[in-house]
Amino acid sequence: AAQAWSNGSTAHAGILSEDARKFRKRRKLARERDAAYIFQQHNQYSTTSSLSAAAAAAAQEHGTSLQIDLHGLHQSEAIQRVHQAIQLFRSERSGSGSPNKRLKLGRLDIVTGRGIHSNQRRSKLMPAVQRWLQQQNISHEVYQSKGFIRAKIKL
User: Which of its termini does the chain have fewer beta carbons within 10 Å around, N or C?
Assistant: First the structure.
């Protein structure tokens, strides 16, 4: 499009530009679909609405924790999933909705991986999630050698 524009073919440049916008939109939708599938494969649940059942099961099994696995997600997708899980913790604690939603959850184990399959064999997710948790003033511990972060959600 830029080359067509610089050659004076403004009509053709406009068509190419519109095609590029459509392609970017399709690519973004495909990545969102893929991210949801990847997350579902690595976790026992696939949507925020079904996180409640998983949270209840985790609370019964582990007391106060929930684990999410972010393997295969891009940084922004991973942060979005962490944010959704934290919102779930807070809504569960506030008791909004049914009485069985009054679970005392306080620990979120976030599996990011160690990055051994990434370029330069370094985790990209762990620093991004850690930075986001710091920006949100959420207390957390980093277990670099095990590839996970334990966030402590204020109840």
Answer: C
